[in-house]
Task: structure prediction
Amino acid sequence: MSGVARRRVGWISAAALLLLVAVAASLAIGSRQISLTEVYDALLHGGTSDNAQVVRSLRVPRTVIGVMVGAALAVAGTVLQGITRNPIAEPGILGISQGASLGVVCAIAFFGVHTLTGYVWFAFAGAAAAAVCVYAVASGGRGGASPVKLALAGAAMNAFIASVVSAIVTTNARALDEFRFWDVGSLSGRDATIAGQTWPFLALGLLLVLAMARGLDALALGDDVARGLGRNVALLRLAGTAGATVLTGVAVAAAGPIAFTGLAVPHIARALVGTAHRWLLPMAALLGPVMLLLSDVIGRVVFPPSEVPVSVMTALAGVPFLIALVRRKAVAA
Amino acid sequence: MSALDHDVSRPAVRAAGYTVVRAGRGSFLVHRRAAVAAVALAAVLAVAVVASLCVGESFVAPTEVVRVLLGQPSPDELVVGTLRLPRLVTGLLVGAAFGVAGALIQTVARNPLASPDVIGVTHGAGAATVAAMTFGVTSYTALPYVSVGGGLAAAALVYLFAWRKGLSASRFVLIGIGISVALGSLSRLFLTKGDYLVAQQAKVWLTGSLNGRGYEQAAPLATALLLLVVPLLWAAQARRGVSLDDDTATALGIRLDRVRLGLSAIGVVLASVATGAAGPVDFVALLAPQIARRLARTEQPPLVCSALTGALVVVVADLLARRLFSPIELPVGVFTALVGAPYLMWLLIRTRSRSGGTA
Result:
């Protein structure tokens, strides 16, 4: 094995190990500290003690959703940065998660839906509608969906939908009062039903994206080179957008809009394993959950008894990492 | 090759399409298409201004509006001159300031997705203001200072972290986003902590609103714009160097880091002061330069056209915000994107592939 490959395998193993630690921490640490042996017992042997109940009914679903959301966001971000060739592309800035927000606002304001599990389908529908519009706008006109047009169409759509959302919540105080808690993005209060609703989509999105890893590498070299290498550029971009949309839909439906993970994790992963997507995508899929779970754990304990929502914590805890990395390395898009 | 490197291969100034204008001993290049676009935008803006002064609780005839604007006596002087004009002037200045700020920051970042949002200014201002509101500061005379302070402090933080033996465009943008996201999360945290009346009020401020704004808010903004005229003239020339790659620029004797710092600093000041006046009026700084660039067909967002587009978007959006759901006046920020975004999307759809370059 060459030095580069050995280093990549090393980093991936380290990330996997880190993920295990993060999962264990997420199961054990909270307002009620539960020892790891007790967690282990509760998972394998059941038991009806309070601690076992907490682990099984609260901590496990929360951790599972954290892993799903983290992986989905990080992989979606990686793909979007790849197909737009823009280092600041992410689900948030491309309008997809804003579309999900619109779906949820409509659910609250017009359809009388007030439960987290009820929001899920509205969020999905909104994300899908936004992505279809972005792609339609970007691929209109001559030249098809070029990276810049895709990025700009996403930004314009993001702006447009955000305005619609503001229009609804500024004229409807009750909707705002409910929406602001969803809009902050959090893993708390999510139960196993949500994981059950969303996992098939996560699997679908991940498969779609992993299948096009080599294509993404070719796309990074520019459209002309990719075409020269025999890749169907338009198809790659369509598939990439679809995959990223499904993944973003999963994440936003399950946890609300969580900024930053989708932006930062791809950069961190790239700094560690390089730009080849067959390494980059798995690395992002491992590091995303690590970032999300560790932030969530910090958010649970930093200001007891109240919790800091995970979206706030990922930004506050992740920013120093990103800054350190960006200062150390030259940034590759 | 990344999108950021993309326009390096193209010459920054093309002789074709430019006219040399000589005035006395000086001479400068004018992009012909941009000049035409600027004149057209100014004409449309003039119409929008008059329309905006006509429409309100009571309708005022355009002839009377023009009389008031020209300083002639008119029975409608109170409604037009005292009630509607101050708000309109604030809107014009805010839009122009955001348009120019966005153009400068997109030029420096060489990224069409960049805007004062992305480098921390608006989120810094937002976080400071929401924090102040949560702790009970609600006066519209104190909040602008809090917000300008927050915006400048956030930008200073971005420069501090991004400057490392120079200012690289991608490092600047990425660190800016990092700081922005952190500050944005803080304001959302404050929003969930306060009760919902404060949340509602803060949300309106965070969307950007011209309700109750007048000369009191316009004056500091006008002063800032006047003081920045000379720096802006420098910027109009210096920014051409930014599209060069670092080696070429060094060979030509251009100190790119200083140019980037200077250009973005002007943008930061403009965006902070504008945010202080009206809140972070969403997306004007992002959309206006890209619309202007497509109208003028220039490589970089044109400054004058961006200012005019920004002002136009804000004036039209505020007209809609005032009248569409009257008697409820919505924040102008709700409508800036409703006005600007569909137009940008339409431009994207009909644009030819060649002009779909980078910022």
Summary: The first strand of chain B starts at residue 18 and ends at 23. The domain at 3-355 of chain B is CATH 1.10.3470.10 (ABC transporter involved in vitamin B12 uptake, BtuC). Chain B has one domain: 3-355. Chain B touches chain A through 66 residues (CB under 8 Å).
